[in-house]
């Protein structure tokens, strides 16, 4: 693969958006879906081509073929229409490729329904379902959290995937949100393997096409995707992406880390999580009034010595009953 191919790929995605009309919208969708397939395929091709440049003749994956409209420069694909292995070693490797990606997932604990847990808690208490950002996981569960959020970023948030795994293995029943800064789909697989039931996708860092692709991967793995937005522009972008079930509005501006809970006002979806900067029953009432059905809370509970009391203080009542 060369730069020319990559450039052409991005031009193909953007080009039709300048036109108007519903037929064009459909064409754009089709074009995007096509681009998605092209992307997956090109990654595989890139690996094959890199290997070929080093004299490795075994292709790691079957060239399943580019999408219909694709006119690419990959001659070796054209010579191998049908995707049959060229020799025994290649057949073994193609099988191994599938086996390896399946294996680690097989060992993953089953995924639990993150969104259902939030809905149930909301119905039960009449208050937003709580996703508690944890330190002592069990205490939060006892205190009435519907779901837990586990930080996995090591450098900036002192979290880890090991911690996520440990919490899952400790037998916590609340579904777990992996609070990671996802840039690449391997992080999603890794989160699932470590026991996550949901994962955060931040719209401020991921282009629409990546979100679409990653949401698909999440669905395939049984993970809920919490797609986080910070402003109206991101909200509108995300609302235009198919298949998104849970949107979070972060009240914290991730560029300045300042918090403003009136950020929740541009809420346009019913299934929204209000995130950050919530400290008092008034704050909860404020975002609930705006239509929030679940909240993601860290600091205000973490800073209390007793998470149960912290939760009761935040909601103004005991929600563990
Ligand atoms: O500690 P708080 O203000 O209650 O916030 C929790 C959570 O919303 C916040 O940690 C968060 C949500 N999404 C993020 C993305 C990056 C950094 C931090 C966040």
TrEMBL record:
Pathway: Amino-acid biosynthesis; L-tryptophan biosynthesis; L-tryptophan from chorismate: step 4/5. It catalyses: 1-(2-carboxyphenylamino)-1-deoxy-D-ribulose 5-phosphate + H(+) = (1S,2R)-1-C-(indol-3-yl)glycerol 3-phosphate + CO2 + H2O. Its EC number is 4.1.1.48. The keyword Hydrolase does not apply. Keywords: Amino-acid biosynthesis, Aromatic amino acid biosynthesis, Decarboxylase, Lyase, Tryptophan biosynthesis. Coiled coil: none annotated. The keyword Mitochondrion does not apply. GO terms for molecular function: indole-3-glycerol-phosphate synthase activity; phosphoribosylanthranilate isomerase activity. It is an enzyme of class 4 (lyase). GO terms for biological process: L-tryptophan biosynthetic process. Pfam families: IGPS (PF00218). It comes from the Eukaryota. Residues 132-311 form the Indole-3-glycerol phosphate synthase domain. InterPro entries: Aldolase_TIM, Indole-3-glycerol_P_synth, Indole-3-glycerol_P_synth_dom, RibuloseP-bd_barrel. This is indole-3-glycerol-phosphate synthase.
């Amino acid at each position: 693969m060369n730069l020319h191919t990559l450039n052409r790929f991005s031009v193909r995605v953007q080009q039709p958006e300048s036109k108007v009309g519903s037929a064009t919208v459909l064409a754009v969708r089709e074009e995007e879906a096509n681009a998605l397939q092209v992307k997956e395929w090109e990654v595989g091709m890139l690996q094959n081509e890199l290997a070929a440049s080093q004299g490795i003749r075994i292709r790691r994956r079957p060239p399943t073929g580019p999408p219909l409209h694709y006119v690419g420069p990959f001659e070796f694909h054209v010579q191998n229409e049908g995707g049959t292995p060229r020799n025994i070693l290649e057949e073994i490797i193609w099988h191994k490729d599938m086996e390896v990606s399946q294996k680690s997932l097989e060992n993953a604990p089953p995924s639990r329904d993150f969104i259902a847990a939030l809905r149930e808690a909301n119905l039960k208490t009449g208050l937003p379902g709580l996703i508690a950002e944890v330190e002592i996981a069990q205490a939060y569960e006892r205190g009435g959290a519907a779901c837990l959020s586990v930080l996995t970023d090591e450098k900036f948030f002192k979290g880890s995937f090991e911690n996520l795994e440990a919490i899952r293995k400790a037998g916590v029943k609340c579904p777990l949100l992996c609070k990671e800064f996802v840039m690449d789909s391997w992080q999603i697989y890794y989160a699932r393997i470590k026991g996550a039931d949901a994962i955060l996708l931040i719209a401020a860092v991921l282009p629409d096409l990546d979100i679409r692709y990653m949401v698909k991967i999440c669905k395939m793995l049984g993970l809920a995707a919490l797609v986080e937005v910070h402003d109206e522009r991101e909200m509108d972008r995300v609302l235009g992406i198919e298949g998104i079930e849970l949107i979070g509005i972060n009240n914290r501006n991730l560029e300045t880390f300042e918090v403003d809970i009136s950020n929740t006002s541009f809420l346009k979806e019913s299934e929204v999580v209000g995130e950050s900067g919530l400290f008092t029953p008034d704050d909860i009432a404020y975002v609930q009034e705006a239509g929030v059905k679940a909240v993601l809370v860290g600091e205000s509970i973490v800073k209390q010595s007793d998470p149960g009391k912290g939760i009761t203080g935040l909601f103004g009542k005991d929600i563990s009953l």
